[in-house]
Specification:
The protein has 175 residues and is α+β, with helices and mostly antiparallel strands. It is built from six helices and five strands.
């Protein structure tokens, strides 16, 4: 590769790392072109899967302020995730189950370096949409509880006042 091509490749990888909120480094040795095509399709629009050169990626990672050197050995491809990192991690994990030639080496999530085990734990999380709907449900439940407490206070006050009136009426009638 010519020097200008290498500089352009480093700039492209650096920009992808900066624009991504996560990147997952994998080894793809043994996967066919058709399998790589299926993997790219399975990741959807939220992630780009690209075969990269280790040396150029190390330089790009340093320029982007990310330390990926420990994951850059052997054949390397990176999934640059711009959407939900959980969804992309699940896609890679599920593809790796069906195609053991794909090995997840590690990655980075919002600047923090992750091991392969941490990527797999990330894949075990529920998607962002599911977590947000659960959170909304919890908020709605808490609001309902608060509303019932606020409604109970005036009605309890009214019952207490009525009980005091009844008691005064009894005492007033007995004298």
């Amino acid at each position: 590769m010519a020097t200008s091509d290498k500089v352009a490749a480093v700039e492209e990888i650096t920009q992808k790392l900066r624009d991504s909120n996560a990147a997952v480094v994998t080894s793809y040795t043994g996967l066919s072109v058709a399998q790589l095509k299926n993997l790219r399709r399975s990741l959807g629009e939220n992630a780009q899967y690209a075969v990269v050169k280790n040396t150029l990626t190390k330089i790009a990672a340093k320029e982007a302020g990310i330390e990926l050197d420990e994951h850059l050995a052997g054949s390397t491809a990176v999934a640059f995730v711009t959407g939900d990192p959980v969804e992309a991690a699940k896609g890679l994990r599920d593809f790796a189950k069906d195609n053991p030639a794909l090995v997840i080496k590690g990655g980075v999530l919002e600047g923090k370096v992750l091991s392969a085990d941490e990527i797999k734990k990330l894949a075990d999380l529920e998607s962002r949409e599911v977590l947000l709907s659960k959170l909304a449900g919890a908020f709605k439940g808490k609001q309902s509880q608060a509303a019932s407490v606020f409604q109970a206070l005036p009605s309890k006050l009214v019952r207490t006042v009525d009980a005091l009136r009844a008691k005064q009426a009894e005492q007033g009638g007995a004298e």
